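Exercise 7.
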Amino acid sequence: MQYNKLLLTVLTTVTFSFCISLNAQNTCYWQQEVDYTMDINVDVKNYQYTGSQKLVYTNNSNDELTRVYYHLFFNAFQPGSEMDMRLQNIADPDGRMVTEDKKSRIATLTESEIGYLHVQTLTQDGIKVSFNEEETILVVDLSNPIPPGGKTTFDMTFKGQIPVQIRRAGRNNKDGVALSMSQWYPKLAEYDFEGWHADPYIAREFHGVWGNFDVKLTLDKTYTVGGTGYLQNPQEIGHGYETPGSKVKKQRGKTLTWHFKAPMVHDFMWAADPEYVHDTVQMTDGPTLHFLYKNDEKFQKTWKEVQPLTEKAMNFFSKNIGKYPYNQYSVIQGGDGGMEYAMATLITGGDKPGSVFGTMIHELAHSWFQHILATNESKHEWMDEGFTTFISSLCSNEIREQNKENPFESSYKGYYYLIKSGKEQPQTTHSDRYNENMPYSIAAYSKGAIFLSQLGYVIGQDKLMKSIQKYYEDFKFKHPTPNDIKRSAEKISGIELDWYLTDWTQTTNTIDYGISTVLNEGSKTKVTMSRIGQMPMPIDVLVVYKDGTQETFYAPLRMMRGEKTNPYSHLKRTVLADWPWANPTYSFEINKPQTDIKAIVIDPSQLMADINAENNVWQSE
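Solution. The predicted structure, written as tokens, is:
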């Protein structure tokens, strides 16, 4: 598929020179721009490669830059690296990265098994610059500062070695895939309104600068390649990319040069194997889907069945979040579980279909939250992992016909487990700084998903989905921050939500409301509720009568300055006076005697993450 110039023109205009009042900085929005041209030669026998890189960098900030930074991710896969040290010192190391006796797999790598990525030469506008390799970060002192609005060109040569598969990237993974090439090239670090984000690679998350990639990969011609971007020379390559029924132009020699272009992405991944099967599905109103998987009988059935599900998932996300803007998406067997990249994902397995299906749905959803919206995952990982978990849970429930009453049940269970463990840290914790992997994972995935599902409880489910769509439309290709999702929801719902963002993401305050007393007062019943936890919430109350009838009562939170519509439209609802947060108790009356009441329930939806459900229910004897 040819490079989409119209798409590039539109996205570049929107992204780099659009002044809005919605962003977290409350100034004219800006972001840096990169244009990569790379030519790579790979030796598939010794797993080493060399490359040249031309990078045109545009400084759209108001700051003069005297230094830049590059990520050199493969240097993490060496004994003694920060990633290795973290594995050896964390209480619950990632099981994929350690041996059966919990020893670091990185620590035992030999010289031929380690990964490395070393810059050999580097110039700025033709002038040599001073640079220093600090493990996974290259520090570059510029020969000439880059002024605000200025452009500069970096020319680089580099060499690398592909590590034995440890985490995400590597060679010869457990499924036998030869090359999973993610985090493989010198990648310029992000500079934004907060400054530089040159975080060392310790196995967590990523952040990147949007731009355009022009990449040529030369390797053994028996290998099939898939990944980010659009192949520019399909008739020279073949391998399933050629026009159906046409002849492929035979290339001399033992190698092929694959030429890819990728507009408006902040990363570039590829994978290759001599035994890949390559299937394609052209969607009616969507991108071309590519599927690359090992030609192994135990994988065939799963990888055929995943194809129509991918099409359904693509349609679901485009409908419920916003239109997918690229012309292709590739689902590739590789990596070490599942990991999202621009226009593609790497997924292992095939002998367990359910795992592959669920992973595909989750990783595809990342295309919206990590590769189109693209928050800084190192600082706000819950906005990517959590939002992805939320929407993929909805998607899986629908297209796999799981029919779960609460699609987010596992997220709530994870959160409650974290609370009981006593190991919770605020979601403002840097993703590398969590004490253990467990509290990080639950904060990112489970508590992050609950941010949205519970937001639906606060503002209403209809307003929630409209808020997600507005968030996507307002902030795609703009690296949104937590305040941005809050503002989108406020604009849609008319409800003030600063309290919600603050307590849920910046503290470890918990929600605990209970029914304290139910007293008969003649022909009426007085109900008193208590706020036990520190986090405030509006309260829905369901009253079930002995004659089988039901009604609801709604106590808005005063600081919301608004009310949600009735989520139980088939039932009568009484809107009560606002509950001021500082009052630990709140009372209201039911216009029936206590003898008529069978049960009173706080939050029948169970979408409010109340840590003690036992005190939410009163039942008559």
